[in-house]
Design a protein that fits this description.
With 400 residues, the chain is an all-alpha fold. Helix content is 73%, strand content 0%. The protein contains 17 helices and no strands. Helix 6 packs parallel to helix 17 and helix 7 crosses helix 9.
């Protein structure tokens, strides 16, 4: 009979692996699994060993530093403690980064975790194609429709996840030794890429792909890979622009909305880009007024309402930019911690095995670009995805 600590550690590991499957599908299942992981991780003991692993991971320490500053931010600023605690809870995924890093130390666990996420995305991909071709239709589970066939999550989230799934599949196609597996991974990567560019209307997916493709070719082919990658981005972009009504419309709308935005004037309600530019400029004003400490964790709402008082601008709960949101709440020290987390991840990724290097650098590129246009650490699915994938990939450091 296995000792209790080893049994609970194994259960914690499998619950963590299951998060890879659940995060693109179900918030409720995510929450159940996160609670299970935490309780099982605590019950399994071996805290000295876990502490040593965390202490040896600059990525884990950086995540703890950021969540620690968010905790301090609850005790000052203009938010009620209840609002501050609610906002802090949305960043709790950062606390799971060191937990996941201790759970995924063996190669088999990492393989299972990546497979769980890929399997979930392949299910999403299949359902998306079925929606697109009218074989399935919108229902209580599937949220999209033929002209915008997202499955479980909204189009922004699905396209972000699908772009990263395409990277995982393409990495498999590049690095697998068996020809059958390489062909299979290559075909699946192309189907995922096609889904992002030609089917689902999530502009962040376009941006992530435009970064990941050149990176992947650079890693595989060196300096000439940059040329190949850029040509691939240009060719795919032109093909999508002239061959996909959805892509064409999304790009034209973005250009039109940006051209009609004027600083200091309320944007049109239907202007997504105009609203974002409005959020950015007003949030920068908040940061200028509170540069060192910010307005505290959860204080953005009231600060923004105060900033737009006596104007026709609409209030928002976040500026759709994680860098600005953190800076407005925690000041420049908070922004530096967030940037440091990404920089440390980029540098520490170089210490990982080849596959994990590819995916870890890709994760940093994807998250940083995503955080420029969304508050991805605040958002549940994207924040948990980041914590999960960080734990899976950066736990490999000890094995190099």
């Amino acid at each position: 009979m296995l000792p209790i600590s080893k049994s609970t550690d194994t259960l914690a590991k499998w619950a963590a692996i299951a998060i890879g499957f659940s995060v693109p599908i179900s918030v409720s299942l995510d929450n159940v699994l996160m609670l299970a992981v935490l309780l099982l991780w605590l019950a399994s003991g071996h805290f000295r060993e876990k502490y040593a692993i965390i202490r040896n991971s600059n990525t884990a320490l950086s995540a703890l530093a950021l969540i620690g500053l968010l905790a301090i931010g609850m005790f000052y600023g203009n938010a009620s403690f209840r609002d501050a605690l609610n906002t802090f809870g949305k960043y709790i995924d950062l606390l799971y980064i060191p937990i996941f890093i201790t759970l995924f130390r063996d190669q088999q666990a990492r393989n299972h975790a990546l497979s769980a996420f890929v399997l979930s995305m392949l299910l999403t991909l299949l359902l998306s194609y079925l929606l697109k071709f009218g074989i399935m239709h919108q229902n209580s589970v599937l949220r999209g429709f033929a002209d915008n066939p997202y499955a479980f999550k909204l189009h922004i989230t699905q396209n972000f996840f699908m772009a990263y799934a395409a990277l995982i599949l393409a990495t498999g196609a590049f690095n697998e030794t068996g020809p059958k597996k390489r062909i299979l991974f290559g075909i699946l990567a192309i189907l995922a890429l096609f889904n992002v560019l030609f089917m689902v209307q999530g502009r962040i997916g376009y941006i992530v792909l435009a970064l990941l493709l050149p990176y992947l070719f650079i890693r595989k082919f060196g300096t000439k890979g940059l040329v190949i990658g850029m040509l691939a981005v240009i060719l795919l972009g032109l093909t999508a622009y002239f061959g996909s009504k959805e892509f064409h419309q999304r790009i034209d709308i973005a250009v039109s909305e940006f051209s009609h935005w004027h600083p200091g004037q309320a944007s049109q309600q239907s202007s997504s880009i105009g609203e974002r530019m409005e959020y950015y400029t007003n949030t920068l004003k908040i940061i200028r007024e509170h540069p060192f400490f910010g307005v505290g964790t959860g204080g953005f709402d009231k600060a923004y309402v105060s900033q737009i008082a006596n104007t026709s601008m609409l209030a928002t709960r976040n500026p759709h930019n994680e860098f600005l949101l953190i800076a407005s709440q925690l000041g420049l020290p908070g922004l530096m911690l967030l940037l440091s987390l990404f920089v440390i991840q980029w540098r520490e990724a170089s210490l990982l095995p080849v596959r994990e290097q590819y995916l870890a650098h890709g994760l940093v590129l994807a998250m940083m670009s995503g955080c420029l246009f969304n508050s991805f650490l605040l958002d549940h699915a994207e924040g948990l995805f980041f914590a999960f994938m960080t734990g899976v990939l950066f736990s490999a450091k000890e094995q190099t």
